[in-house]
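Here is one chain, start to finish.
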Amino acid sequence: MSHQQISFSWLRQVVSRNWHVAMLLSCLGFFLIIAGSVTAKEVAVKSPDGQIVLKVGVERGVPHYTVAYDGKIVVMQSRLGVRFKLAAPLDEGMRVGKVTRASLDRRWEQPWGERLKMREHYNEMLVPFIEVASKGGVSNGFAVRFRVFNDGVGFRYEIPPQDSRTHLEIVDELTEFAMDPASTAWWIPARGWNRYEYLYKTTPLAEVGRANTPITLKTPDGIHLSLHEAALVDYAGMSLDQKRPGLLKADLAPWSDGVLVKAKAPFHSPWRTIQIAPDAVGLINSNLILNLNEPNKLGDVSWVEKGKYVGIWWGMHIKTYTWGSGPKHGATTKNAKYYMDFAAKNGFSGVLIEGWNMGWDGDWFNNGSLFSFTQSYPDFDLREVTDYGRAHGVRLIGHHETSGDVSNYEAQMEDAFALYEKRGVRIVKTGYVADGGGIQRVDENGIRRYEWHDGQFTVNHHLRVVKAAARHHISINAHEPVKDTGLRRTYPNWISREGARGQEYNAWGVPPNSPEHTAILPFTRMLAGPMDFTPGIFDMDFGHGLDAPTRVQTTLAKQLALYVVIYSPIQMAADLPENYEKRPEAFQFIKDVPTDWEDSIALAGEVGDYVAIARKARNGDDWFIGALTDEQARTVVLPMNFLDAKIRYVAQIYRDGPKADWKTNPYAMVIEEIPLVKGRPLRLWLAPGGGAAIRMHAVNSK
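Its structure:
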């Protein structure tokens, strides 16, 4: 089928489905028809399985691309190009140069992750765009490298010097994603004061404003797509701004002086990514983002530690403790030892202690310049705590809250990591709360500047932190971070991060996380990479009553399911130790569930409604399943075709009780064991706001 035939077919479907949407698209449809007949040169590349077809061309000197999946256009004719502050723009007067092609099919392994064995399989097309009429004998231009996988598309700009200039400043990236405006979108707003920490909106695409990525879409044909970026290095983070119904344009976070990207040519952009699947679970099963990142640059990373941890974090959010010093100070030597005893007793490897270092007193949200990252409060002895942990087989998890003052942090960072390395700390949680106006830096003239959390300056700062930490064999778990773009492949010590509304909003958020929130995250934020969500709350109202406006809106079984559904190689048992001691039978699942996986398979789900994911433990034959739902009760039937036919399994099931409901009866739970074999479906009832957690124990393992 030709490009023009596909375009006509798509338009006919829109007209038959919804006439007023067709009217919105009429102008765009006209341009599609014209493009099919007057494009001087059009080149194409297909995915290895032939399902995805990407076409690239020039119309009236303007570069563009389209993407089709299974014979249907999913990205209509969309513009390409960049503009500079001084050099000539790269978006008009262009022609396609000599195209080069390549293919790759290789296997690689993750040192840790949701899957051990990965396949990187794509067809590539490098398309040069050359100025038709060069000026003064100097021909400007650029190239776009397209890689088409079976699960989606990645493309990036490759920019040589322009007008003989090597120092270039980008003031606009013209990348477009022209989609059907009748698609459903799951999205959060971009460039807001709260970074990525918003509840997701479910709207027609036409109602999306400026959106963060990943943004997930479902077309009227039922095709699912996710728009994001991969390998965000030395560039501004990309949001998407809807310019007219269905037309999403790249919107890069600017520097404080308004420039978007400052670069030295030659350079390339991050990959712009389009994950494509016939259904919702296909997005979760995609490896596109990781496959578009470079291989490990750190060499031997056997020192990167995975595992589960506890800490005083939740106690501070529910006001049992305080970050600052005083009578309720949480970060004391005594408290640290208490949590280390609990961790050692239950097989956890780490204890997170926040607030031990000087600087937390007063308005620490806006006083980042006061933090010391090596000097402790008098009631916390770092040496004593780490020695105690070592004797009990538990490591302290370090903490660096910057409050967004990265100049203060970077001035102390090397000494802080050296101190932690000396004391045996292997993981550091960093924080960038920065509610005072953004990321703060002091420029070369001593002037304080404010930058976006996802601007080029902050993107580079996070990578400086990760590289510095690696020199000390320390892994980074960034909170209030720049978004994940798969750089954990290249820097495996970037072990997790936040970057979405986490569990703490259930302590004080107005509103708290809704029951559907964790049924949306796997299909949106989690497509980018691991999240330190901090699951495992067993006391749903922390003494305020079930009718309190702020509380955990899940059942107990759903809290257990989160350990499988929300992936991270480090998982927190976030509640107070005494709440786990009151419910030892439920706590057993948290003790048993791994954090590092041989394989992961999304079994069933619809965005915002429900999801079920199976994961196989590394170095063993046990499988684990996490299933959860939104505010609606539902029965799910899960296929068991992934099990080994030669192994007999006993499923240890933690599921909602018959009368469970997140509002009125969140603790009702049934724990049972049943035999399971390959091919016999598993039927589960999920309560409103509920879930199920399952360990499929291999009893006759090979």
